[in-house]
Amino acid sequence: MDPVRNPYAPGAGQRPPELAGRNRELEQFAVTLERVAAGRPERSMVLSGLRGVGKTVLLNALRGQAVGRAWGTGKVEARPDRSIRIPVAQAVHAAVREVSHRHRDPDRVDQVAGVLKSFALRTQQADRKGMRWSPPVDAVAVRGRADSGDLELDLVELFGDVASLAGDLGVGIALFVDEMQDISLEELAALCGACHEISQQGAPLLVVGAGLPHLPVALAASKSYAERLFRYVSVDRLPREMAERAWRVPAGTEDVTFEDEAIEELYALTDGYPYFVQAYGKVTWDAAVGSPITAGDVAEAAPEAEAELAVGFFGARYDRATPAERDYMTAMADLGLSGGDGAVATAEIARHLDRKPQSLSPARDGLIKKGLVFSAERGSVGFTVPHFGKFLRGRS
Ligand SMILES: Nc1ncnc2c1ncn2[C@@H]1O[C@H](COP(=O)(O)OP(=O)(O)OP(=O)(O)O)[C@@H](O)[C@H]1O
Ligand SMILES: [Mg+2]
What we know:
The protein is α/β, with parallel strands linked by helices and 396 residues long. 53% of the residues lie in helices and 10% in strands.
């Protein structure tokens, strides 16, 4: 069918035509926003799940809710081996901009801008990688506030001041942190500490996180009370009826329907993983001759959908791994892991490769850093990419 009218949207962070199966999280977050704006105690939200399950898209939808309530918002994308100081300063700057133009007291706005500036200035001195950024505002840096160099103390002061500015307007500040598992343990602890202090003050500021399945473990390791700070939401593949919605609703807006057998077949092939839902939806649409889309259309489209995934979804990630890391992942696949289906003991991988477990640590750590493998439990690892084991087995 006409590719121009194709509604499906495979791609990292691509907003799906129908955000299926996430109503509970959206409703919960609406309550969280109301409670925090009213100064009531509330846990923030942390989303975790495998690659391509829709964490970024959900995080963006939550941000949309905060924007809809006139909150100030900003977003950080964490990176391995990078400090979060400058990204946080930039996100706070974006959030402050959204509220300051509605604020009636220019002196208070300048004061907060000055604190942000002093945080950013101090940050430049502390950032060894030499990232440079200063908020593009005229305000004079407020010396002695948010510039001690101790990240936790500085964040408490910065967050407190921006939250109080938003509080003047009856709203709050929400910061969204994607790939949160890439923040170093030390900075994660500082961020948690600051959130803890701010929430005890009843100040309207939220940090909402998203990351790989081991993110809750990393948070717990950084501060013992992390669990009381965040509501952990596991973002997962879509159940059958939600995947069906994800295919049918967008097609419906184009007056196109699916035969039940086509949906059955699509679900069997994709397991309801959102990235695959979009990828298969897109190729199937293009392959179909007309409405209704049949199981035959799906069968015809499947090899092409797999080929596209092999390049864009799996291949791009496989290419980033070193030869030793590839051997490690191939062993995981040989041991029966498909991806999305649990974990395998690292000792077993060592046995399979006939190597000493310690000698494999660099490969394992490299894969974790590259976000291809996660370890939610000591001594075991799983693929972060659904169906990755199947992909690897198909290569050999
Ligand atoms: N609830 C949903 N219903 C239908 N499609 C969805 C849903 N959530 C996400 N998608 C689709 O899935 C794909 C992946 O989404 P997204 O990039 O948010 O995943 P992710 O979990 O952030 O992945 P990664 O870990 O690689 O960053 C996108 O094409 C998006 O349109
Ligand atoms: Mg993402």
